[in-house]
Amino acid sequence: MSVEMTSIFGSGFMVLGAFIIATAAIGLIKLPDVYTRTSAVGTAAGLGVSFMIIGVVIFDYSTLNLIKGIIAIIAQLITSAIGSFMLARASYMTGGKPVETTVPDELADQS
C-alpha cells in the first residue's frame, strides 16, 4: 500500500473514532438519565477508541504493532462493556431511577 493510501485510511479511521467519541460527548449532555448516558459512553469508548487504534496501526504498520493493536482493541471492548454495565448497576442499586418512559422496569418488578 502506498504512503498516500496509508495516510488516507489511517486518517479516516482516526477521524471516524473521534466523531464517535464526540457524539457520545453530546449524548452526555442531551440524554435523559444515567442509564442512557452510560450506554452511549460505553459504546463510544468501545468503538471510538477501537477505530483510533486501527488508524494508528495503519499509520505505523508492523507485525508487533498489529499484535499490540489487536490486544488493545480486545481489552478496550471487554472493559468498556463491563465498566458501563457496572456503572449502570451501581446507579440502580443506589436509587437512581430510570426516566418514566422506560417500560417495563424489570428490576423494580423483582423487588
Assign a percent range to the helix content: over 70%
* Count of strand segments: 0
Query: How far do the termini sit from each other?
Result: 59 Å
What percentage of the residues does DSSP assign to strands (E)? under 5%
Number of helices: 4
**Unreliable stretches covering 5 or more consecutive residues:** none
What is the helix/strand order? HHHH
Which structural category do the helix and sheet elements fall into?
mainly alpha
Overall morphology:
elongated
- Largest beta-sheet characterization: none
Q: Roughly how many Å is the radius of gyration? A: 18 Å
Total domains: 1
Average of per-residue pLDDT values: 88
What descriptive keywords fit this protein?
single chain; 111 residues; mainly alpha; 4 helices; elongated
Can you tell me about this structure?
With 111 residues, the chain is mostly helical. The chain has one domain. The longest helix has 31 residues. It starts with a helix and ends with a helix.
Produce the secondary structure layout:
Blueprint: H1 3-30, H2 34-59, H3 63-93, H4 106-110
